[in-house]
Amino acid sequence: MRNKTELNPDNAEPERRTAFKQIFRRFGVAVVGTLAGHAMLRSRPAISAEIIRPPGALPEPAFDSTCIRCGLCVEDCPYDILKLASWTDDAPVGTPFFVAREDPCRMCPDIPCARACPTGALDPLLTDIRKADMGVAVLVGHETCLNYKGMSCSICWRVCPIRDEAITLEPMQNTKGILQIPTVHSDKCTGCGTCEKHCVLSETAIRVLPRKLGLGRPGRNTAGRDKV
Amino acid sequence: MIKTIRIICAGIYSKRWLLTRRTVQLFILLAFLYQLPFIGNIATGNLSSSEWFDKIPLTDPFILLQSFLAGSSLAAPALIGALILAVFYAIFGGRIYCSWVCPINMLTDAAYWLRQRLNLKSNLSISKELRKAILFLALLLSFSAATLAWEIINPITLLQRELMWASMAGSMFLLALFFFDLLVSRRGWCGHLCPVGAFYGFLGHFGRLRVTVNRAESCAGSSCSACMKVCPEPHVLVPVVSLKGNTVVSGDCTRCGACLDKCSSGVLSMKIDLSHKHSFKNIPIVTKK
């Protein structure tokens, strides 16, 4: 282009036209870049209730930037529960997660997934799987849970790998008699999801949620009560 | 009988670089999927970070750079892996990754092959500089959004994920990429848009494995220019074809060897080239023997 105009000065485009062309071209690049950038920024999903990270995962914003989406944790999981997110999953593309209802974390004592992580997105300092924090089990179906109906299903309590510590059965008197209520203790629960997997209902009544979604937090104003 | 064997051998010889390259590409792709008996894993992970033979860690420096810009602190295993690769590509030439490792290259080469076969002429010309702009945008967004921006679309790891967990969205994107290269733009993705290629181009700017002209007097130059017709980045061959330089010095050269396969006079070879006198500020210096 440039050579041609240099060879035939008569055919040269007016300087102003080339200047405008260049300006519009750059403007176009800027617009497309901004649109693409905006779309990318917006495509970062918020914390999803369905995304449970492998043990030792950093808290969410840090995990997103530290995980390099390599899938080494996926391959080192002996039970093959992990998957890398695709566009249709509710997590940043390529990051690992598992669906507790399909296949819960078996809480291997040697934590092979965290050992495999090359970047430390899964904490290499996590040595005790009982200290893992994948989420927390929450009994969400108070109207469907069989123990709330006065039966003694208690399957969640029986399958819990941290038995009688993470989930206990607390007696509660109501009009039907004494109910044995499965009660999750968030300081002991690792969020492995075994209870969710084994809940006998067609839609689970106990569900693992990311800790932020699964737990309340006391207000700053204790309103006269003692701080818990 | 002997004649047919000779023809087959000649056929293989005229595609020696292509065949070697496809073998290496397929080996790397399949190494992640299959295990060897007695040895076990060949490679685990994917092309963003992998472990070869359960020992050697390799990490894509571009992806680690995004992660670093997104605000993560660098951990030793990933850093070691990235350094190994960065040093390798810096010494030999960065875009070796594009033509010898990247699985998307097979997809876009297939599109290009079909394009030639169907004699499709329509071409949206895109500036080769656009990939650098996309690279800059990817790094900027990684920094500002604290996520690995390019990994949202990166078709390389997407392809590897598709091989394990096929999904509609992912396959459609790869298909779209194929048709983009086939119908819209000639060598559109690898040659113009992909920021991974741009990154490796920068990384291997001084790469020493270079296409070299041996007997410059036998090279017909621009009257033949068969090498330029097959080159995925034809502009890198300009100094050679115009008989102004004996070496391809541009960082854009992917070292695919297509020119060596095509050169009928056999003057081209791939060489480790340690001299640094071939160009001065991108102006090639004539060194005719």
TrEMBL record, chain A:
This is Quinol dehydrogenase periplasmic component. Pfam families: Fer4_7 (PF12838). Coiled coil: none annotated. The lineage of its organism: Bacteria, Pseudomonadati, Pseudomonadota, Gammaproteobacteria, Thiotrichales. Residues 59-87, 96-127, 180-211 form the 4Fe-4S ferredoxin-type domain. GO terms for molecular function: 4 iron, 4 sulfur cluster binding; metal ion binding. Keywords: 4Fe-4S, Electron transport, Iron, Iron-sulfur, Metal-binding, Repeat, Transport.
From TrEMBL, chain B:
The keyword Iron-sulfur applies. SUPFAM superfamilies: 4Fe-4S ferredoxins. This is Putative electron transport protein YccM. The chain crosses the membrane at residues 24-43, 63-91, 133-153, 165-184. Pfam families: Fer4_5. Keywords: 4Fe-4S, Electron transport, Iron, Iron-sulfur, Membrane, Metal-binding, Repeat, Transmembrane, Transmembrane helix, Transport. Residues 209-242, 244-273 form the 4Fe-4S ferredoxin-type domain. InterPro entries: 4Fe4S_Fe-S-bd, Electron_Trans/Redox, NapH_MauN.
